[in-house]
Design a protein that fits this description.
The protein is 32% helix and 24% strand. It is an alpha+beta fold and 176 residues long. It is globular.
Amino acid sequence: MKVIEVRNLHKTYEQEALPVNALNGIDLTFSEGEFAAIVGPSGSGKTTLLNIIGGLDDPTQGEVIVDGINLNELSGRAKTRFRMRNIGFVFQSYNLLAKTTAVENVELPLQYNPEYTGKERRDKAIKALDAVGLSERLNHKSNQMSGGQMQRVAIARALVNDPVLILADEATGNLD
């Protein structure tokens, strides 16, 4: 089964004097269970591609179909709901909330899912942190962790909702 299908994807950013073509006619297909790496030099459009596949940005042209859903056909609110339940993100800069603990950061994606009670959210977050080797850091805040530990919190947060798709932008940069 196809999990991601990208057809004729274009993204152009309008700058002052010149438009910048970040993506130009990308076609991709990834199937269930497939692991892929997109590589290229800085500025080549990797993050732009991930943001469009993840529904965080819209293409200038083309289609993105994730788990059978055409993201172009979703309203902003529907796209947010789809993303929340189906896509896990690991960002380059972690995007952890500074004043919250590791377990609270991992619980965050579940906060917006009414299927889980507070206890279930906490239990799932603890289990995800244990899976990445951070059960001893549950109550530590970002400024009390190393870069590698913060990256593992971000990975646990991406996994906690059992997403169909995980998008990771330089996800192992700070890990040994």
